[in-house]
Amino acid sequence: MTGVIEERSGAERAAELEPRLAEHRRELTGYCYRMLGSSFDAEDAVQETMIRAWRSLDRLQGSGAMRSWLYRIVTNVCLDALDGRKRRALPVDMSAEPSAPVESSLAGMLPDAAWVEPALDRQVLPVGGDPAELVVQRESVRLAFVAALQHLPPRQRAVLILRDVLRWKADEVASLLGTTVAAANSALQRARATLATHQAAAGSRPAPELAEENADLLARYLDAFERYDIDAFVALLAEDAVQDMPPFAMWLRSATDIGRWMLGPGKECEGSRLMLVSLNGNPAFAQWRPSGPGGGHQPWALHALEVSGGRVVRITSFLDTRLFRLFGLPDTPPPR
After folding, report:
1. Residues β-bridged to residue 282
2. By three-state DSSP, how is residue 103 classified?
3. Mean pLDDT throughout 183-193?
4. Confidence band (pLDDT; 50, 70, 90) for 127?
5. How many whole angstroms separate alpha carbon 125 and alpha carbon 42?
6. Is the distance from CB of 245 to CB of 92 less than 8 angstroms?
7. 179 secondary structure, DSSP code
8. Per-residue model confidence (pLDDT) at position 316
9. Beta pairing, strands 273-279 & 251-253
10. Can you tell me the distance from the alpha carbon of 267 to that of 145, in angstroms, rounded to the nearest whole number?
11. Using an 8 Å Cβ cutoff, are 315 and 253 in contact?
């Protein structure tokens, strides 16, 4: 009888904890994304965390310990995943010079694991909350910032995210990582210095602007691309705009070269349809290209944009159609 009571009690406790575990899924996904630089790997890491959590429910002490308990598990999952793995990057981080000539810039395709991947805002950013805190959260998932994080050793990466993004206290981070406060603070200082060096090397731009601040510009971007009016499209770009296109090891710098690309190898995108989405705290477009049977539209790319000063300053086009399913995007463009 005792065993039956204990089993029933365990089942009831699990049922009670399940919605509480689910409440933390979004913030855990955001943490894993910053750590791993991959939306796919982040989803896998959160799933593994939930499995480990269920297996160790008996170790949870007190109702207020849920969040720190989950972060201890998820950090170990991420550190295990990063053990011996090469860092992810963006094409602009791998080569000091843009591709030239533009016509041959499709050479040098690298595997998916080489690239920092995009993240859908609604999967990694909190809903509501303090506006100032939301700004910090949004900045911490910018593609350039996530790419810079990948330069840090895994434990330094965890310390910096926990302290500077999630605002944990030094003693909380030390306890989570099983180290001293002094060691945690030292790791944070080294991480900040390394991050500052890489951000300085990448050059500084004004903070990217939000979609709502540039509704007209984004509408003109969509219109020009769908009509494939290259002159109108190039007019929306900053003179020194950058475009890269993972998984190709290419990147272009200047509105002129981007226009040449679109009239050359990129002309296969003529007739595409776009839909506005939000990736990495910035406006973005999902693209369906007319490459299916009978010219039907199929998923092709996600264009992550950075906008500053009323112009598009960067386009990172991810040619990984698996992202459409991961982000819950349809197989065909929605009707208008």
Report:
1. 279
2. helix
3. 97
4. confident
5. 13
6. no
7. S
8. 96
9. unpaired
10. 31
11. no
Edge-first strand order for the sheet with 311-318 is 251-253, 237-244, 311-318, 298-308, 282-289, 273-279
Instruction: Please count the CA atoms within 13 angstroms of the CA of 252 that sit on its side-chain side.
Output: 26
- Over residues 231-250, mean pLDDT: 93
Report how far residue 273's alpha carbon sits from residue 271's, in angstroms, rounded to the nearest whole number.
Answer: 7
Rounded distance between C-alpha atoms, residue 75 and residue 94, angstroms: 28
Whole-angstrom distance, CA of residue 181 vs CA of residue 308? 40
Supply the angle between the helices 170-177 and 66-82 in degrees, to the nearest 10.
60
User: Would you call the peptide bond into 247 cis, given omega within 30 degrees of 0 as the criterion?
Assistant: yes
Distance from C-alpha of 157 to C-alpha of 151, rounded to nearest angstrom:
9
User: Which domains are seen in the chain, by residue range?
Assistant: 1-84 (1.10.1740.10), 211-326 (3.10.450.50)
**Mean of per-residue pLDDT scores for the chain:** 87
- Please state, in angstroms and rounded to a whole number, the distance separating the CA atoms of residues 252 and 91: 10
pLDDT tens-digit map of 81-107: 999 888 999 888 876 667 665 555 566
44 within 8 A of 326, measured Cβ to Cβ? no
User: How far apart, in whole angstroms, are the C-alpha atoms of residue 311 and residue 39?
Assistant: 28
Q: What is the pLDDT of residues 42-67, one digit of tens each?
A: 999 999 998 888 887 766 665 557 88
Which is more confident, 68 or 118?
118
Q: What are phi and psi of 239, to 5 degrees?
A: -55, -35
Residue 94 token pair: 């791998």
Helices (H), 102-242: 121-124, 131-139, 143-149, 154-160, 170-177, 181-202, 215-227, 230-234
- Residue scoring higher pLDDT (184 or 136): 184
Full-model pTM: 0.89
Assess whether pLDDT exceeds 90 at residue 313.
yes
Long-range Cβ contact pairs of 48-53 (< 8 A, separation 24 or more):
48/77, 49/73, 49/74, 49/77, 50/21, 50/25, 52/77, 53/21
Decide if pLDDT at 24 tops 90. no
